[in-house]
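Hey, I'm writing a tutorial for new members on how sequence and structure tokens pair up, and I'd like a real worked example in the thread rather than a made-up one. If someone can provide the structure for the chain below, I'll link this post from the tutorial.
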Amino acid sequence: MSKKAEISEEAVDALLEKLRNEAEGSGYHLNPDREFTRELVRSLLINQERYGYWACPCRLAAGDKASDLDIVCPCDYRDADLNEFGSCYCALYVSQEVLDGTKQAAPIPERRPPISKRRAARAEVAGAALTGKLSQPVWRCKVCGYLCAREEPPGVCPICKAKKDRFERFI
């Protein structure tokens, strides 16, 4: 029996509804193509069974959570992809503009660096924590104080739902 057949339709629908509620509650949107999105959700469930975590369905997972943390859904690259291209790499999440039909999602290049660069980046972050020198800016939501370290602030604060323009560079 294939893994696809082992995942019940009820399990797919339940997780899809949960993800949709969480996304909408945090200012994000799932792809409106229901069948396409259901297959991505099915793949998340397969990866949950296979690895014990929701590895991104369109990336090759190592099967080691510590090595794959950057691609556990929602992956570390989602916000940058949404801001620049209108959807995340696997297209599970889409921007408001894509949802509204005012923007077409564009092809997305792979942002995930090779494993050697990911290891070096983790070592750099650990060193930066000790020295106070960070490789990315830290953004602060002026409404609720939420902090995040990334190239750009999120489109919507996951805590208070303030828009991107309500963030300031903190460090």
